[in-house]
Amino acid sequence: MIEQSVLFERWSGRRRVRIVPVDIDREMVAWTTEDAMVCLEKIEADRRTLAPARGSWGPGWFGHLSYDLGPAILTGRPRSNGRGVPYLMFRRAGAIRVERPLRAGDGPGRIPASQPASRTDTRASYARKILAAQEELRRGNVFEVNLSQRWVWAFERAPDEVALFARLCRAMRPAYGFFERTPGGTILSFSPELFFSVRAGSIVTEPIKGTAGPADRGLLRSAKDRAELLMITDLFRNDLGKICAPGSIHADGPKEMRLPYLRHLFSRVRGRLKGRAGLPEIIAALFPSGSVTGAPKIAACEIIDRIEPFDRAESFGAAGWVGRDRMEFAVTIRTALLRGRRLRYTAGGGITVYSDPRKEYEESLLKAGRFMEGLRTARQPGGHKKARPPRTWTWM
Questions:
Q1: Which residue range is the domain that position 277 belongs to?
Q2: pTM, entire model
Q3: Is residue 388 part of a domain?
């Protein structure tokens, strides 16, 4: 069994690699807003003592931020999370190893069978949530709000975490694969979305909006999807304005991302950080990602809190690493939590006044479909064709 507590799967050119933090000597866990901000300050102070990265990765802090920390940061109202996934968990690694990617056979034995998924919503209840959000839209309280539903599986016995992650990676082919053991369960993330990357004083974000099936070639021509992306791109420009030098912020897009199982629109927003803006300032300005909340962000988070019947926790937060001279975080969409025999997965989409509840429900199924297929295939030896790079871009 592989004993690492945190792993990453990435593409290096056209080659897939596993990033393994080693020589772990420190760990930070936060269950309250106040403790999380203190941890971010400590990580920022410590990163300036680290050795510089050689290539794309190097020594640093590796871990996650829970979505539920975000609304507490935005509102300034302290919150505590006494159970489940911690608000923040990072481990300090003195070095990293770049290894072959995880294979379907990694970890002992086969994945045990699981019971059919239960979920938080039926088609009718999801439609009611959308209608409730649209009432807030018509009142002018918000321009867009992201809603989601959750699926839960029960295995016959607890599966090997690394084996499950390896086999789902082959199904999902994520741009940003992330594995982390936490007190509340093991996070298995298969995200296509870059939250932010910092290098040489420049910051880049790539928010995703708009979804279509893999054979649908009309996404770039969709007025609704382009409008959603423009709204969130403007939100990111505004958020980056809090930490970037005046006049340095630029946006490109829309662009089309083609994954094996669906298509997305995304934009690229970049700027130059001002002063000594570091990790605490970046998180305070950007987190949680506007692509998973809606706009305005505080109002959208409050509506999500009222309408969704569960804590988002591991889903829609952020996962990545902080080094001396660079940082990289993904938005934890396409993310599951494994706790003992139970596995949960959350998916949804952006709701506007023009949203059709039926289509929004189908979109959430589309985003969950590949994971469900991967889960079925994970119980079989082999299971998937050789992985290829997960996305290509079409510029508009």
A1: 6-107+115-380
A2: 0.92
A3: no
Among the listed residues 73, 117, 67, the one whose alpha carbon sits nearest the alpha carbon of residue 87: 67
Reduced to 3 states (helix: H, G, I; strand: E, B; else coil), residue 131 is helix
In whole numbers, what is the pLDDT of the chain averaged over residues? 89
Tens digits of per-residue pLDDT, 315-340?
999 999 999 999 999 999 999 999 99
Distance CA 309, CA 149 (A): 9
Known catalytic residues?
Answer: 193, 209
Summarize pLDDT for 274-316 with one digit per residue, the tens: 988 999 999 999 999 999 999 999 999 999 999 998 999 999 9
Integer CA distances (angstroms), 32 to 90, 283, 395, in order: 15, 16, 42
Q: How many CB atoms lie within 10 A of CB 339?
A: 14
Local confidence band at 82 (pLDDT 50, 70, 90 cut-offs): low
Contact yes or no for 379/111 (Cβ under 8 A)? yes
Residue 41 forms part of a structural domain: yes
- CA dist., res. 66 & res. 279, Å (int): 15
The 10s digit of each residue's pLDDT in 144-196 is 999 999 999 999 999 989 889 988 998 899 999 999 999 999 999 999 999 99
- What is the count of structural domains for the chain? 1
- What residues are paired with 22 via a beta bridge? 95
CATH number of the domain enclosing 72: 3.60.120.10
Burial 218-251 (b: 16+ CB within 10 A, else e): ebbebeebbebbbbbbbbbbebbeebbeeebbeb
Question: Is position 174 within any domain?
Answer: yes
Task: Return the SS3 of 31.
Answer: coil
Closest to 120 measured CA to CA, from 368, 384, 320, 316: 368
Task: Give the residue ranges of DSSP H helices in the chain.
Answer: 33-47, 69-75, 123-138, 161-172, 223-240, 279-286, 297-307, 357-378
∠ CA 178-184-188, nearest 5°, is 20
Query: Which residue bears the tokens 């019947």?
Result: 309
Question: According to the model, what pLDDT value does residue 4 have?
Answer: 67
Q: What angle do CA 384, 371, 98 make, to 5 degrees?
A: 60
Short-list 285, 314, 320, 283, CA closest to 90 = 320
- pLDDT at residue 382 in the model: 46
Q: Which residue has the higher pLDDT, 149 or 99?
A: 149
Is residue 58 in some structural domain?
A: yes
The CA-CA-CA angle for residues 331, 188, 366, to 5°, reads: 70
